[in-house]
Specification:
Length: 390
Amino acid sequence: MIAPTSFFGDYGCHVRILEEARILQQMGHRVTVVTYNKGRDVQGLDVRRTLPVPWHTHYEVGSSRHKLAFDALLALKIGALMMRERPDVIHAHLHEGALIGHVASRLWRVPMLFDFQGSLTNEMVDHHFLHPKGRLYNPLYRLEGLLDRSADAVITSSHLATRLLRNEFGCRQDVVQTVPDCVNADLFRPRVRDEAFYADRASLGLPADAPVIAYVGLLAEYQGLPQLMQAAAYLRSCHPEVYFLVMGYPGVEHYRRQAAQMGMADRMIFTGRMPYEHLARWLGLGDIAVAPKLSATEGCGKILNYMSMAMPTVAFETPVAREYLGEEGIYAQERTGEALASSLARILEMPDRGCALGAQLRKKAIVRYSWAAAGRTITAIYDWMLKRAM
């Protein structure tokens, strides 16, 4: 697996990489994850890291010019690994991984699967690293299409992404298949409101019986954090009993200061980076979940965690959110803090309806979004690629 990121980083695409590797190992595959120098090692996983760069020791989340150097070192690492331990399959994550994987695939005649987790150019626009009318947009858009079509097979995290690749980037229909983000329903399950539950609430300054709205994910504009902050301020006036539990990074101090300026310092609890293995414990302190992500093409795996925890979930109306939540989701039709607050208030004012929606969402998560099923699908695609390569 080629992972052009600082794996493991306790968010989004890293969780998909981790859970895919784990289920494939359980099925008997030998998986090697090749990634950047920095990141958190995961017990039981063979992770190989690149050499460090001396001039930049802090890796940003998302797009960065420094990634050019990181990816060059990653390509060298992949080349050395291919010569020593030629694998049966290259499983490339993200577009940088697809570029490196494509070269290695052709040099060593090994089939490559591209794990597509969102449009490269759209993500760069979301991160304000690229302007849609700038000089670089069209060349990068064409490069993205070439990379999408270069793989022997492509898997996507949503049906929306599958349609995007087939209709906009011209990928062959038989090459692209949807393997949605999934969830470990045994780990992510509703918490019992026992002594430990109330002790955990107290440790964070959350009252025992106050309604708590929970968010987990990166703290970034494209994740809808400004709208979430605005929604919290709107709700304060009509539901002063509500608390917000915000789990994620980076920019924690920035958002804490903003909450204080808005008079919300005593109502918004920021935990900072939350280790994935502890997430279910702390997410289980919430009553309602919120997923205000703005991106129209990226996956939104946090929604599946919310669903598995039986938490009624409020999200902006995006194709990916609709794909996961269906009719059991609560949607803010406009991408504003006021609309988000209005949708959250609907659940706060109908707690029985919220409990019913949460139960339906957990059932859906168990039935439709199993990592075991995803592992079987990925293995079948590996077999299909290997047969074609013979």
